[in-house]
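Work Package 3 committed the consortium to producing structural models of liganded targets before the mid-term review. Because experimental data for this complex are still outstanding, the team generated a predictive model from sequence and the ligand definition alone, so that downstream docking and mutagenesis planning could proceed in parallel. The input record is reproduced below exactly as it was submitted to the modelling pipeline, together with the SMILES string for magnesium ion.
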Amino acid sequence: MKYLQLVWAALLRRKMRTLFTLLSVVAAFLLFGLLDSVRGAFAGAGSSVNGLNRLVTISKITFTMQLPKSLLERYRAVPGVADVTYANWFGGIYQDPKNFFANEAVSPNFIDAYPEWRLSAAQRAAFRNTRTGAVVGARLAQQFHWKIGDRIPLQGTIFPQKDGNNTWTFDLVGIYTVADPKQKAQENALLFNWDYFDEARAFGNGSVGWYVVRVADPARADAIAQAIDAISVNSDHETKTQSERAFQLAFVSQFGDIGLIVGAIMAAVFFTLVLLTGNTMAQAVRERIPELAILKTIGFTSGSVLGLLLAEAVLLLVCGGVIGLLLAGSVAAGLEAAAGFVFPPIVSSLAVWARSLGLMLLIGVVVGALPAYRGLRLRVVDALAGR
Amino acid sequence: MNTLVHLQNVSKTYTRGVQKVEVLHGINLDIAAGDFVALMGPSGSGKTTLLNLIGGLDAPSGGSIDVGGERIDQLSENALAKWRSAHVGFVFQFYNLLATLSARRNVELPLLLTRLSGAQRRARADIALQLVGLADRAAHKPGELSGGQQQRVAIARAIVSDPALLVCDEPTGDLDRQSAAEVLTLLQQLNRDHGKTVIIVTHDPKAAEFARHTVYLDKGALADAGVRPAA
Ligand SMILES: Nc1ncnc2c1ncn2[C@@H]1O[C@H](COP(=O)(O)OP(=O)(O)O)[C@@H](O)[C@H]1O
Ligand SMILES: [Mg+2]
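The resulting structure, written out as tokens with the ligand in place, is given here.
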């Protein structure tokens, strides 16, 4: 511990240079923290138990292709299925396209499939009984200052009404909340009655966007998913049934192979970081040859000089890395709060921290190795003579 | 009279590429405990090389070096480092202080290798600074001190672990007359009042006058008179 002052003294020798090096480390690990969280969420998609009792059935061909509503009764008949609901993506705009939020036409029992949404019995009933009724999440209501009884007009982007009118107006009859702070993003949605939607829309009548199937026993989810997909096999509407979570991630995965992208970006970032800090460290040690010679002169062994130089690099990496990850944590929290339905939960998990810490140590050692070796080999008499 | 430094037939050969250059030839030299010796000679005569051998910074190519009863030519690199920390203080022409550390922290450096507590290290460093007349500059960084003051901090660093031997390579080479005289007087005091054995390398006959004895080195060999009283 008493040697720490020497490590600090070395780092403070050129404050600006150390600061800039530190900042590049911070930036690298901020990026790493964010990207690794995302990658982790994708990698863990198959293994999570969360939401496993809800399966989502979509068209096998593409997410946006509709399925016949007639499948509903057949799904209900599959053994082990507790309940089946369905929904259509509406994609309506409230006032301005910038006000993006999820809005969907849903079956009367849709909300019952999501016990984590809190909605009073009275409002639940009102939703079932009001043809033009809609419920919204508390966050959304707060954002647009909506209250029960308000009329909310949405501009259809996909579905006009039969009479050519593109404005759909809904009566707000309920506001739901989500207790889990990590799931608060789910409050950014507006749901309205599918029956009203289906009767009024100009085309696509009698088809649904996706089914949500509740299974009684999550352990049998795989078998049930297969049974459901078997129903449509060899038809013109083959289906793909997966856990809700896998479905959400698949939605985002449309944009590319997340693991590969993250890996490539991070490889580039860390490669640059190693070059940058490695060069800086080498330069710093070159300037300090006389000081290192003095340490050896007064009795520091070559091994302890090596240790000091390595510690310097590792300390710099760990300080920058921890700051970067803490920043990543708060940025991730911000993203989580702002993200819509379909984004994976972004968390700075223990696994991310463990991986990052390993990387910090590894990069620290790699970056410090060359200067440290120089320190190890340094011959006092030559260094003192300026050779 | 106790002999502190005993060199017998010491030679040193440097290899430059394929060429071997012997820069010290068969040196025999005894220095008594408590002596103050000035090592003089033309540039390139091997003064620094000899001083580094006596201080255990380098190993001879031949012969034996005994300092305070220890055959230091037979020690391993790490053992030599340990030996240096306990028995020798070094002062160089360029003070080689750590720029970001205060004078006190610089003086404390050698004590980091001991088992002393932080408070004990600090107390010892302050005593050493007091000895060199810089008690009031303990908190200053090297950049805030004059050349002469920095060299005195370096001397405090050299004596803080109370070594028997001080080796100084042109300690006044970078100083003006006034500061040089102060530094030499300080070395004289350490020799006279604290019993340190001091060896300095110098070009300057005026500086040599502060020593009790002078040794002349020429082309890697001692002038035949060997150790003789200063003029
Ligand atoms: N590490 C070394 N490698 C090669 N030659 C050296 C080395 N150190 C010293 N020399 C040579 O040895 C001779 C004596 O050097 P030195 O002891 O520094 O002389 P002085 O201190 O008397 O000026 C010089 O010719 C110098 O060039
Ligand atoms: Mg010299």
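Reviewers should note the following from the model. Chain B touches chain A at residues 48-49, 52, 57-58, 77-78, 81-82, 84-86, 90, 92, 94, 96-101, 105, 109-110, 112-113, 118, 157, 169 (CB under 8 Å). These observations will guide the Year 2 experiments.
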